[in-house]
Design goal:
The chain is about 35% helix and about 25% strand. With about 230 residues, the protein is an alpha/beta fold. Strand 3 and strand 4 form a beta hairpin. Helix 1 runs antiparallel to helix 4.
Length: about 230
């Protein structure tokens, strides 16, 4: 009679533990992602509040803040190459030191299609502009991102943009997307925040890992039964 396949059994058990562990991990990720999406929806549903109030509430992601930015309509800007609604173009990024704060924010004033050459004028001004902006976090550019050239950026790099705009003092790391017009004289400049880039495929991944575990267990049982059947006189 053949010996029991201990090595195969141990390897199968280890593989099953790995596959089931990956499936459980994906279920945990699913719960985390659902919670994250619910929190983002709740934050996005809140009405705009004064900037100082929003800053005092902790997590800023998707929060809308009401602020006053002096001279923003004619402030210097850099361009961020991007695609919006399937169209290539740029977003205009300017610095703003909100009234009553000791830091600056980089304000995304909106999107302009590539085919439009119109740009806001740039002059020194202290004219106050009331703005509703939405806070968003983002990933830093990686090594594959092209270097900025002639005031045009290809990744949202807060430090490099602030330096190009000659901002002094501290700058908050979040992006602030204008939701109200900064330059109504330029119709092509559309203020907007991009949609939430959430993907939730963890349920499918969990089913895949658990399915592989079931297939492996079935294959092992079938192989063992075939082996035992051969050993039976």
């Amino acid at each position: 009679m053949r010996r029991f396949p201990w090595i195969l059994t141990v390897l199968t058990a280890l593989a099953l533990c790995l596959l089931i562990g990956l499936g459980v991990w994906q279920v945990e990720r699913l719960q985390w992602k659902v919670g994250l999406m619910d929190a983002a929806d709740a934050a996005a549903a809140k009405p705009p509040a004064p900037l100082a109030e929003v800053l005092g509430q902790g997590d800023l992601e998707f929060r809308k803040a009401l602020m006053v930015c002096r001279g923003l309509a004619t402030a210097p800007y850099v361009e961020l190459q991007t695609i919006h609604d399937g169209k290539p173009g740029v977003r205009l990024i300017s610095a703003c030191r909100p009234e009553g704060q000791d830091f600056s924010l980089l304000i995304d004033r909106g999107f302009i299609p590539e085919a439009v050459s119109a740009r806001p004028r740039v002059i020194d001004s202290t004219l106050p502009l009331v703005l509703v902006g939405e806070f968003r976090t983002f990933s830093r550019p990686n090594g594959m991102t092209p270097a900025p050239s002639n005031g045009r950026f290809y990744g949202r790099d807060t430090e490099a943009m602030a330096k190009a705009l000659k901002v002094t003092g501290s700058v908050r790391p979040e992006a602030v997307y204008a939701l109200t017009q900064t330059n109504p004289e330029i119709e092509a400049l559309k203020p907007s925040a991009p949609p939430a880039a959430f993907t939730n495929n963890h349920f499918g991944y969990a089913l895949t890992w658990f399915g592989l575990a079931i297939v492996l267990a079935g294959f092992y049982v079938a192989l063992l039964r075939r082996r035992l059947k051969k050993d039976t006189p």
